[in-house]
């Protein structure tokens, strides 16, 4: 392994721990909801409703995992499943009023967390940080 590869591994591991991404039961902004559910909630809040299969693709998770996540959102009273129009086998997922409230609370907490992080980065380095994250994302994105 090259020295730079090792440094990248260590830097990413430190970021994951500092941001709290290794804590499966809560979001990086400290909300007691699994990160996978938070991502599903965010996608549903952004779109209003999604076919469950579209949610699979957006979350980049297996169908069974996404189905379990949707089931958890339904159990919390945050989402509901219905048959997709024109597709008797398709499932449409939409947020309930409770779900929209939870999504809004999560979005506020996330915004506060990112605002605080951004405030700690010198202004003249913020664009470089954003470019570096975009480059890293593209480099590891295997889709």
TrEMBL record:
Q: What is this protein called?
A: DNA-binding MarR family transcriptional regulator
SUPFAM superfamilies in alphabetical order:
Winged helix' DNA-binding domain
GO molecular function annotation: DNA binding
UniProt keywords (A-Z) are: DNA-binding
- Alphabetical list of InterPro entries matching this protein: HTH_MarR-typ, MarR/SlyA-like, WH-like_DNA-bd_sf, WH_DNA-bd_sf
Q: Which domain of life is it from?
A: Bacteria
Q: Name the PANTHER family on file.
A: TRANSCRIPTIONAL REGULATOR, MARR FAMILY (PTHR33164), TRANSCRIPTIONAL REGULATORY PROTEIN-RELATED (PTHR33164:SF94)
All copies of domain HTH marR-type, residue ranges:
5-138
